[in-house]
TrEMBL record:
Residues 2-83 form the GST N-terminal domain. One of its GO terms (biological process) is glutathione metabolic process. InterPro entries: Glutathione-S-Trfase_C-like, Glutathione-S-Trfase_C_sf, Glutathione_S-Trfase, Glutathione_S-Trfase_N, GST_C, GST_Phi_C, Thioredoxin-like_sf. The keyword Transferase applies. GO terms for molecular function: glutathione binding; glutathione transferase activity. It catalyses: RX + glutathione = an S-substituted glutathione + a halide anion + H(+). Its main location: cytoplasm. It comes from Bruguiera gymnorhiza. Pfam families: GST_C (PF00043), GST_N (PF02798). Residues 89-214 form the GST C-terminal domain. It is found in: Cytoplasm, Cytosol. This is glutathione transferase.
Length: 214
């Protein structure tokens, strides 16, 4: 197989999602750094990989992919026999798909807004909008109530084991855990146990180390 190249930034939560999947699969890959501060993601040659101008992108021979969750699903299926099995078969796969969608359409929009306000705005010298934070904290609390109910009957979101459904949450959870929002996870015992479990995975530790070395 041709070498895997990941174009992105170690501080990008979407790029981290891909890194975590590759490490779980114990695959070799090359990181091609895209300087977001300099706007490289909005210019050629990156736009040839993703015309929407967002990281990450994956290149493997003549295969070019963008959208982090599409990339993780390609890796999980293409390398099903390598490393951690991140998918499952039959009806359980349908449940996995449900929670992959929940993460993308319910969890991610709210947590991404909170990360932007609480982590990235201060990093870029901008002012946090407390009204936006309060509104999205209230929304996240409702979402986490649904997760608490699910995780009270299942240790993981789908398939009875760690899968893409859990992995996709890691970047935003880890980033938010450095903020006041940590209390929302801690207040829900099953959510808290799940967060402790998935953030302790060796593959995720490697992603964290990439940021530390940045």
């Amino acid at each position: 197989m041709a070498a895997i190249k990941v174009y992105g930034s170690v501080i990008s939560t979407a790029t981290q999602r891909v890194f975590a999947t590759l490490y779980e699969k114990e695959l070799e890959f090359e990181v091609v750094a895209v300087n977001l501060g300099a706007g490289e993601h909005k210019k050629q040659p990156f736009l040839a990989l993703n015309p929407f101008g967002q990281v990450p992108a994956l290149e493997q021979g003549d295969l070019k992919l963008f959208e982090s969750r599409a990339i993780t699903q390609y890796i999980a299926h293409e390398y099903a026999d390598k490393g951690t099995n991140l998918i499952c078969a039959g009806k359980q796969m349908a449940i996995l798909s449900v929670w992959v969608e929940v993460e993308a359409h319910q969890f991610d929009p709210v947590t991404s807004k909170l990360n932007w306000e609480l982590i990235f705005k201060p990093m870029f010298g901008m002012t946090t909008d407390t009204a936006v934070v309060e509104e999205n904290e209230a929304e996240l609390a409702k979402i986490l109530d649904v997760y608490e109910a699910r995780l009270s009957v299942s240790k993981y979101l789908a398939c009875g084991c760690f899968t893409l459904a859990d992995l996709h949450h890691l970047p935003n959870i880890a980033t938010l855990s450095r903020t006041q929002c940590k209390k929302l996870f801690d207040a829900r015992p099953h959510v808290s146990a799940w967060v402790a479990d998935i953030t302790a995975r060796p593959a995720w530790a490697k992603v964290v180390a990439m940021q530390t070395n940045h």
